[in-house]
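Tutorial, part two.
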Amino acid sequence: MTEKTSTLLGYLAMLVIAVGTGVSMVAFHPFAPFIVLIGGAMIAVIAQNAFTLMLTFIIFALLRLPDFMPILGQFSIGKLIISGALGTLIASRILHGQFRFVSSPHNLWLFLLTIAIIISSLLGSDPTYSFDTFTEVFLKIAILWIVFINTVTDEKRSMTYQVTISLITVLLGMYAITAQILGYDPVSGAQLVEGTRAGLQGALGDPNDLAMLLLMGMPFAAIATLDSSGKQRYLFGACLVAIIGGILSTQSRGGLLGLATGFGLILYDRIKSKSLTVMLSVGFLMAMAVLAGISERSSGGSMSGGLDDSASGRLDAWSAGIRIFGHNPFFGVGFNCFRFHFFQHEIHNSFLKVLVETGLMGFIPFAVLFWLSLRGILRIRKTAHPDRASRTLVDAMKLCALPTIGAVSVSAFFLNHAWTWFLYMIFMHSAVNNNIFNVTGDEDTS
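Running the prediction step on this input gives:
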């Protein structure tokens, strides 16, 4: 079957379904066929390729639309979109006779991590809870990985993804700034966390989590600002201000440490002096802490009891995690089950969370994923244009990967994001860029 024939058959099938559904719905409402027609046209545009659906899912997931509009949560739209992306990818490969998928060294280690999670769930303290969390959270990460690796196969799509992430962080940064200026959430009207800290609804209600997400867009906006000129520099500069302003609005200490790490890595790329980079990064961190009002937060009014209690609580959780790991070194206590072993509290360290909950069986593939990604990022940097005046946004994407993984990793060291999107999105972007820019010498096998 030729590509043209399969495309025509696809459009014909959609037309038949749309007309049939519209006719059947006339009994419910006379305008139903028009709604179906418009909806069908939108679906036809979006569903032309798995990449568009995958990008739609990322936007939907990171902007947390169901948290702002609870009615959307009743339809499991996120699951439908990512399942549709996977189905579209598989159907496209079958129709075009392409049965091989894109290979990457990362794929094996994500597979081994997934197997480790399943085994740790079976042997853990609460298998039912672990499997529920696996199907609700990590399974979607695994599906996103498959679609991402097999659809982001050229420079244009990689750049589109990078710009999408940056625009999402700009929007969320502006939302956080607005919330702090108003003194309450602009959508729900709810009070800010601890009275002064901006967050979002639902899963990103914790200001620390919001700060970590904003860090994913900061380095690209910063490098694009530094390496562009004219109106473009003002545009990216405004985006950078929105993102940094959003991080400051969260008053997240982990977010500020990540911000300073990203700033330091960007700076070191330009001045090549370790001592000066450290001094400027520390000065930057102190200045950002003053602007964010961290001193006011830590001196009183914190729901966690202030900086000392917060740090002490984390140290206690880390210490408990190490002891628990000593009793379950190979398989862990079960996927997402640390809280059941420490007074219903989380461990507040993404890397220890992997170690404690999945043991060495899960931590080793996770660590290899991290190492492969970092190695690829360092190699990709070398392909950026050496002359800053001649650099493009693609060069900014190549150079921003290191400060991004650095900033997010530092923030993740104090947060529970071992099983959420952030680190895995960095891993998968590194994996596809290795193929796109051929930094490992491997050819794309799609």
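The CA atoms of residues 338 and 344 lie 8 Å apart. In part three we will examine how such features are distributed along the chain.
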